[in-house]
Write a structure and sequence with these properties.
A hairpin with a 2-residue loop joins strand 19 and strand 20 (about 365-380). The protein has a 22-stranded antiparallel barrel. It has a five-stranded mixed β-sheet with strand order 3-8-9-6-7. The protein has a four-stranded mixed β-sheet with strand order 24-25-29-28, with no helix packed on it. By secondary structure, the chain is mostly beta strands. The chain is built from five helices and 39 strands.
């Protein structure tokens, strides 16, 4: 294929992780990137069966996983909730939150693992480039290129639980791509399906009142995607992508169809990128357990950027713009509160536009300064600037010092910004309380700073980063109760439904401060043995009240250790361990009766045997020590015990 930097097959895959595309407007070598970035390579994905990509992200420094209510893990970066992590697929925004309302756990599952080339994780705010939602960081899932030669692969995974009350899993996926016309036209196609059976009702022990909590739910997913890549010349490429997926999480079903058209061009004076894409999600079930209330959302985006080098101070200047339109149709939850006159048009929509710039300046040899700002004009909230300053310095061979400051924002979703939206809450759809949106909400804003240093000694690397993030105007619905006597004393109480349930609306009251440190290292013991480790310290607190309170589902201490050994030319062995420190799982607003989960550790082992160039077989034990985390109340979560897995990959 033409335009080699964009579509060429990778002749040296081990070099690819040195270049990243998410932390700045232009691709950069990792040590030059103006951000804290971690990479999960294709080799990382191949070491173990991957049912949800979020499971792998837990090994990245600064990343923790929330398991509230035994849902699919949500990705939290630097102590901020998963709603503050922006998910991208090949640079395109993916967001199903309007269609599923609470704690969306769908966005990392639209791409089969066999199609993923690498995952780039930016830790820290990136609203200067990506706008709303990128307060905590960005996860960019980068898929495989079409390539200059035909390639294909198919993979089957079987995971069996030692405890037969726990659900087994099966995963199947494929990826194929290559040229239709040499250097001009290429195509790729990928797809897959996976299933995790639900845990048996008797898995968890009975609590003191005799009630058993449910285990991990059943999951069923299927997905298929395709791309057509056309290179009319060596300097231009046009790609057309189409994706369709269906996800079933414990009976809540979501369908997604996405279409994208992109042009990338190179000129004597610079380079350009223009993209038009749409993302259509259908929630076939709704958002309330036991009810069928379907809804659907659609997002249409037109964005583009132009980069040009400037001789003065060896600058690289990028200018860009974005137009976005979001629409939600929900005849149940946008019909107004129960008992009120129904809306004739149960839909809501919002438009926003943005312009941004990023300028990378070579101040001195070895010292670069990146300046950026994005101005978003939101239909409901007006204009917001998201400036960013970041420096990268190489004081001596092997050394990198980086640091910066940024301001970011997150606009309320279509749902909670609509006064006509409402949903049952307080534990019951009929006898609890009722929560609504509000037009009076303000965007959440944050200010962050970080400083880090790293040394690359060839055979070993070591890095340390410290950060401090302050989040204001955090959207909050914690203040609610089903107690009809206490309800009027709450500041966000707005009245009673005809059936007597109290009503509350979202409000901007909460502020959060998250501070921490990330330490990572790697040692190449020999050409066959590689050891890696990282440790994250996270101190995330709700600072809204008189006394600061810890945020839930955030371990203060998390550590990962891994080793990869090429024992024989055809045999590779891997061992990984993860430590999760104590974490609060329930923090009442009054600061009393806090509930904390104990620390635990998990160890996984695997072996990979290359039978021949076309067949690779893998076997492994997950959770070698059979460390289990049981669930005795609704705030707790399960961790699977010992599991055996067998995997086969065929390449052609």
């Amino acid at each position: 294929m033409a335009l080699s930097s964009l579509t060429c097959a990778q002749t040296a895959p081990t070099q690819l992780p040195e270049v990243v595309v998410t932390g700045s407007a232009l691709e950069k070598r990792l040590e030059e990137a103006p951000a804290s970035i971690s990479i999960l390579t294709r080799a990382d994905l191949e070491r173990r069966p991957v049912h949800e990509l979020a499971e792998l992200l837990g090994s990245v420094p600064g990343v923790t996983l929330t398991r509230s209510g035994n849902g699919v893990p949500g990705v939290q970066i630097r102590g901020l909730g998963n709603a503050y992590t922006l998910i991208l697929v090949d640079g395109r925004r993916v967001n199903s939150s309007s269609a599923v309302f609470r704690g969306n756990d769908y966005d990392l599952g639209w791409v089969p693992a066999e199609e993923v080339e690498r995952i780039e994780v930016v830790r820290g705010p990136m609203s200067s480039l990506y706008g709303s939602d990128a307060i905590g960081g960005v996860v960019n899932v980068i898929t495989r290129k079409v390539g200059a030669q035909w390639r294909g692969s198919a993979r089957l995974d079987e995971i069996q639980q030692q405890n037969r009350l726990a659900g087994d899993s099966r995963i199947a996926s494929f990826s194929v791509g290559g040229p239709l016309m040499a250097k001009q036209l290429g195509v790729k196609l990928s797809g897959g399906a996976d299933k995790r059976e639900a845990d048996d009702a008797a898995l968890n022990p009975a609590a003191g009142n005799g009630v058993r909590q449910s285990g991990l739910p059943g999951l069923k997913n299927r997905y298929i995607s395709g791309q057509l890549a056309w290179s009319p010349s060596e300097l231009h490429q046009v790609t057309l992508d189409l994706d369709t997926s269906h996800r079933d999480h414990a009976g809540f079903e979501l369908e997604r169809d996405a279409l994208s058209l992109r042009h990338q061009g190179r000129y004597e004076f610079g380079r350009s990128e223009l993209r038009l894409y749409s993302d259509h999600s259908k929630n076939l079930t709704g958002t309330v357990t036991g009810q069928i209330n379907p809804n659907k959302s659609k997002v249409k985006v037109l964005d583009g950027k132009f980069s040009l080098p400037l001789d003065l101070w060896e600058q690289n200047l990028t200018l860009g713009a974005e137009l976005r339109h979001e629409q939600l149709w929900d005849p149940t939850n946008l019909a107004g509160a129960p008992g009120s006159p129904p809306r004739a048009n149960p839909s809501t929509a919002v438009r926003q536009k943005a312009v941004f710039f990023e300028d990378e300046i070579t101040v001195l040899p070895g010292l670069t300064l990146t300046l950026g700002d994005r101005y978003d004009d939101h239909e409901n909230f007006g204009g917001h600037h998201s400036p960013r300053v970041y420096g990268v310095w190489h004081p001596a061979k092997g050394w990198t010092v980086r640091g910066g400051w940024a301001r970011a924002f997150r606009a309320p979703t279509l749902l909670i910004n609509s006064p006509d939206w409402g949903s049952p809450s307080c534990g019951s759809a009929t006898a609890g309380c009722y929560i609504t949106g509000s037009r009076d909400l303000k965007p959440e804003t944050s200010m962050s700073k970080e400083l880090g240093a790293a040394f690359d000694g060839g055979r070993w690397q070591l890095g340390l980063t410290v950060y401090d993030t302050q989040l204001k105007n955090m959207l909050d619905i914690t203040n609610r109760t089903s107690n009809k006597t206490l309800a009027p004393s709450y500041a966000n109480f707005i009245g009673f439904l005809p059936d007597g349930r109290p009503m509350f609306r979202y409000q901007n009251i909460a502020s959060v401060r998250s501070r921490g440190a990330e330490l990572s290292g790697r040692l190449k013991v020999s050409s066959a043995l590689d050891i890696r480790a990282n440790y994250s310290y996270t101190d995330a607190k709700n600072t809204s009240g008189v006394s600061a309170l810890p945020l839930t589902y955030r371990s203060r201490h998390v550590a990962n250790l891994g080793a990869d050994w090429q024992a024989l030319p055809a045999l590779a062995l891997s061992l990984s361990a993860r430590f999760n420190g104590k974490q609060y799982i329930s923090v009442p607003a009054n600061g009393q009766n806090l509930q904390q989960a104990a620390a635990y550790s998990m160890v996984d082992g695997s072996a990979s045997w290359t039978v021949n160039p076309s067949l690779v077989v893998r076997v492994g034990l997950l959770n070698l020590a059979n460390t289990t985390v049981d669930r005795e109340n609704s705030n707790e979560f399960n961790e699977d015990g010992r599991r055996f897995y067998l995997s086969a990959t065929v390449r052609f």
